[in-house]
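Input.
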Amino acid sequence: MRLSVFFILFTASLNVFSQSGYRKEIEIRESPLNILEYYLIIPGQPYHHWLHKEDDDFTEFEFRKMYLRPMPGMKISIDTKNAFMSIIDNTSELSYQMQICYFKQADGSKIIGIYEDQTGGDCDSRSLIFYRYIHKKFIDVTKNVMPEIILKDFCPMAYNLHYNMFETVYRLPRTGTTIKVKAQPLCGQDERIRMGSVKYYEYFNKLKCNLLELTWNKRTGTFTIRN
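Output.
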């Protein structure tokens, strides 16, 4: 009897968790209300080593809800007041994190920024993309929003054009509208430096590089490098 009662309560709690707090997908796509709802409908499959999109029983929307279930190794922060959300996933040998927030323009429209970072493999993988959400579709506006960033922006002493290749690590803002950016050397397995990686790292390690800040201009809907 006790086992039956426990099973009923456990099943009910799962059902409540999966349904509580979420509007229907069709309602969210019509008009997302907060950063969590934008996350639930952004393009692409959510990262997780045990989530496989070929399991056609679930939509991407349902996968994203599943991904937010609490489990050891997961740290999820949802701050709807500041329009910021982050996920840190250390449930496997790879470490994954996502940051998502939006930036308001003067006319009230929003630019949604999504940064993903996966580390722990042979080479790290990172991406930053910006979207507008118009007529129930996400439009990639990254090239329109972001300035061109070169190594000399971080490292004033950068002089060797042959070795001026780097990766960028971003931190989206939980408060304010300033993005912080750090430059770091490419992975040693990158084909662009594989043959000369020793000289490349020697060059990069001699540079004195600063943290870069990108400031948001709500009138133009663009970021600029703060000098």
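The chain has two domains: 22-145, 146-227.
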